[in-house]
Amino acid sequence: MVSVSSESCESNERLGVARSRANSEFPAETNESLMIPDTDLTTDGALSLTCMPNTTTTAMETSHPAVSPESAPETEAFLSVWRTHARLLAESARLCRAYGITEQQYNVLRVLYLGDPEGMPCLEVAARLPNRVPDITRLLDRLLRMGLTNRERLASDRRVVRVSLSQKGLERVEEITPRLAELHRSRFSRLKSGELAELSRLLHKLSPVFVAS
Fold first, then answer.
1. H-helix segments, 115-166
2. Do the strands 120-121 and 35-41 form a parallel or antiparallel pair, or are they unpaired?
3. Starting at the edge strand that comes first in sequence, how are the strands of the sheet with 120-121 ordered?
């Protein structure tokens, strides 16, 4: 029969407390090779120290199977486009603010600049913008108050409102456009002309997906 002294039991309890404290003070994610000591009794009643590997890291790694550090190619492509778009948009917006307008307001002015000099219906302006505008009427009202556009109703159909550039608006577009073109050239300077064409082709290839949705 194996006899265990009270001293051995007390030592076992103390080591158990120390082991619990080690787990709390040294979490597995900060030291994957951490080995936590455990105790056992030999046949002669003496204490024997063993090492038990900490399996907390393995449990944590498998607790979120939907989020993998190795992203799918589609996710990587999305993140790359998203980051690049955000940086380009921030720089363009900053440039437009230097001229007292937002980038969205510049887009409207540019559409009018490239469109019919006699003006365009409001809905046509909205359709030609590079992104959707939730309230094109309010945006056009703002440009009108700033003196950058003109607006009139057709005599033949009072329901149709045509918007055109004012002289001030035309000058604003001609001031900003060369600066934006220079910004775009500098940011895409690492790509050759063929690579730029291929980049545009691939992005245009995605367009029908969003139109369908």
1. 122-128, 136-145
2. unpaired
3. 120-121, 161-165, 149-153
**By C-alpha distance, which of 42, 36, 48 is closest to 11?**
48
Q: Give Cα separations from 118 to 16, 109, 146, 166 (angstroms).
A: 87, 14, 20, 11
* pLDDT tens column, 112-143: 999 988 899 999 999 999 988 888 999 999 99
Q: Residue length, the chain?
A: 213
What is the rounded CA–CA span in Å between residue 21 and residue 36?
10
Query: The whole model's pTM is what?
Result: 0.64
User: Could you tell me the two tokens for 26?
Assistant: 């040294």
H-type alpha helices, 63-192:
73-97, 103-114, 122-128, 136-145, 167-187
What would the pLDDT profile of 31-61 be if each residue is shown by its tens digit?
444 444 444 444 444 444 444 555 555 544 5
Q: Using alpha carbons, select from 80, 103, 83 the residue that is nearest to residue 183.
A: 103
Q: How far apart are CA 64 and CA 61, in angstroms?
A: 7
Question: If 0-12 CB within 10 Å is exposed, 13-18 middle and 19+ buried, where does residue 176 land?
Answer: buried
